[in-house]
Amino acid sequence: MPSSTDPGQTSDAAIAGESADSTRQRIVAAAEEEFARHGIAGARVDRIAKQARTSKERVYAYFRSKEALYAHVAERETTALVEATQLDPTDLPGYVGTLFDHFTARPDHYRLITWGRLELVEPAGSTAGRLQGTIAGKLDQLRDAQRTGLLDPAWDPVDVLALINQIAMTWAGQPEIAAAAADQAVAPSIAARRAALVAAVERMFPRPD
Fold this sequence. Notes:
Layout: H1 20-42, H2 45-51, H3 56-62, H4 66-84, H5 92-105, H6 107-119, H7 127-147, H8 157-168, H9 175-184, H10 190-204
Pfam families: TetR_C_21, TetR_N
Keywords: DNA-binding
Region (Disordered): 1-22
């Protein structure tokens, strides 16, 4: 059975007589969908249990509370995002394209993380530390690029990171405009939306020759 280090989780050793892998995976998958759709306050453990083909009691055997379950899901999603979107400070347009691709392929991820930002004072579980460490590492990369002449030193690295992240999430954060673009944009494809973001960042932070 898998081990657990998430706050609020029950040790798998305490869950006897069940195929822990399959049940736990179904619970987490159902929770991802539930939290992305309804947020933390609006999510219901009974719906998660039904979707996972198990009982509420079994959900609580793995995760002591709804908040602990959200913390686990948020940490998984954050880890997936960090691993999928490594920063190359010499190719910020490419980084924005990678972020765009991630959120286009996983729209539920953006909604799930946004719910946490709206409803929680601090990120859930160990997500806060992971995010701060990732941000600090990216800022160090940007500073190094400025010191070696690969990035304009006139910019504050924190502004660079905030701007390119926000640009990358332009369409994920504005689904109503994305819907309008499908009918009214000169080039309505997703590829055209991606190209526009990449071009915007290329103008702001051109790749070094």
